[in-house]
Amino acid sequence: MYVTLDGYNDFPTYPGSDHPFPDEPELVAEEIWTRRWGSIDTLLFDPKTFEQWADFWPLEKRTSGEHPWLRQMAEFAEKAQKVVFCGTPVKTTWANTRFVGGETGSAIARLRSEGGRDMAVVGPALGLELMRLGLIDDYYFAVFPVILGKGHQFFGSLENQQTLRLVEAKSFKYGELFLHYQTAR
Q: Residue 39 sits in which domain range?
């Protein structure tokens, strides 16, 4: 997840947020995504986030002047199974998309029983629900050096504290942080 220092899920403007240029590596996104492409085969969405991704990430929407990482991410997203948690399917032409309804915990259990590689949660609403249910094993954050003060808060109220164990931390040129935590069990 991408998050500001005060917990908002957003992509704020700050000195360095206009980088990288096409000839520079996309270091923050590489930590969050590229290193994990080989272990992830399923992306989990809430309906709102799926609509945003389906509008932006399909391969045919990429252009030649963009940063090369955007095409690479689009290729990854195109191949991945996309599972949208909603009661009513929406019309989409994006390949490998399916819709699941019912209770979220049961739906995750069914997905896990199908086998495959890791699942990545894409979207704060679904992420918060999976947090509440204790169904997240690893947390990957790109933290931006901004206190935003408004927007969509990533973390909502939880019934119980969740303690995490830091696995990895990296800082980047413009003050961004990459944090990988695992659920302490």
A: 2-12+24-177
**pTM for the whole thing?**
0.91
Return the HEC string of the chain. Answer: CEEECCCECCCCCCCCCCCCCCCCCCHHHHHHCHHHCCCEEEEEECHHHHHHHHHHCCHHHCCCCCCHHHHHHHHHHHHCEEEEECCCCCCCCCCCEEEECCCHHHHHHHHHHCCCCEEEEECHHHHHHHHHCCCCCEEEEEEECCCCCCCCECCCCCCCCCCEEEEEEEECCCCCEEEEEEECC
Number of domains in the chain: 1
Q: What is the pLDDT along the chain (185 residues), one digit of tens a residue?
A: 889 999 888 889 999 888 887 888 888 988 889 888 999 999 999 999 999 999 999 999 999 889 899 999 999 999 999 999 998 877 888 999 999 988 999 999 999 999 899 999 998 889 989 998 999 999 999 999 999 999 888 777 778 888 999 999 999 999 999 999 999 87
